[in-house]
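note to self — DONT lose this again. spent like an hour looking for the file last time. sequence + predicted structure for the chain T wanted, 265 res
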Amino acid sequence: MSHSVDEQLSFLRSLIQARSFCDSTLRFLESLLVSKDVKSLIEVRSSLTHLLRSESLSVIRSIAAKTVHDKLLVLDFFVRAFSLVGDQQSCLALRYEALVMREHKSASCQWLQVSPAEWLSFVENAVHNGFHAVAEKACEIALSCLGNNDDLKHGRDPVPENLKAVISEITRLRNCAMASVASRSVQVQTAEYLKRKTTEQQKPDLIYTEKRCLASTSFRNGIKRQNIRKLREHQSLQQISSELNGRHPNLRLNDQFNCDFFSLN
């Protein structure tokens, strides 16, 4: 990344640390994603994701004693920020935290109650992006909350029909999420089992390969020893031939037969 981009990232960090959770900060963040080439965009997006994850954790920890309203404002800011950089996992995680917090506090603050449409929207996004475990948990909470809805309890029209439709859809999505989680669990267990079986099956092959390697090494060493022995015999033969030729200049020892003949005399 260029020096100017590093400076812009540093400026964004300073805005977050100064608790400037407003639209202007989000617009500045969005401006950093404007790039002329794909490579630069990927690098900047990755850097922004890392920065936002780090800073969001720090900020959320620091506002533990703040009011629900303040917490929700911060969560909303980071939800929008993560959405801009395309970090769906972090975006959904913070949306989930905000929904659960609102539902938990809605008993004393009615305006915080999560609407059926909000629950359905979140569950659909979670399932669509493959976060089935989170979707399953959200469905359970949503169904529990919607089941306690006063309109549904008292059978008021026409709201109950809408609620029933939402509950039916959330139930369907919950079943899909549960099936996906169970399927994933089976796939993981199957993969681990196959890996373990493959390892066990390879052990005899490894032993057999090691034995073959040892046998092959022994064979090669045997050939080397035999060649060394032949070389020494040949050198000895040449030495004898040289000595005999020195005593009998008119004789030439050129083969093993002549060597054997003179060695007998």
